[in-house]
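User: I'm writing a tutorial on reading structure tokens. Could you give me a worked example: one chain, its sequence, then its tokens, then a sentence or two explaining what the tokens reveal?
Assistant: Sure. Here is the example chain.
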Amino acid sequence: MSAARLPRLLAAVGVIAAAVYLAAILVVPAESRRGVAIGVGAGAAWQALVLAVTLTALGHNRLAAFGVGMLARFLLVALAALVAVPALKLPPAPVLLSLVTVLFATTLIEPVLFAAGARNETGR
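And here are its predicted structure tokens:
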């Protein structure tokens, strides 16, 4: 896997984050929008970092990259729920739901974007 795919992956993360934020502000009360913005921002930034690291370090081993990505996402959700939300006195529902939505949606498109343009050299 080449690093040339990284801009496309990062753009997809940005589009998903924007879509989640725009959808959330339509249904979330005004006083909870700060929590949504924090959750979306943290999820998008973390996912971008994880994609960049796994693409660079584990570009030729997609299974390992997906495994490391899943562990990293789980770690972020756990730290957000147990440390960041209580410490910052944020409303947990908007923060965690928007965070998890961004991470879930980017996880769904990750295999498609990783595989785009990949060639099967074995002919199978």
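What the tokens reveal: The mean pLDDT is 88. Helices lie at 6-27, 33-57, 62-88, 92-115.
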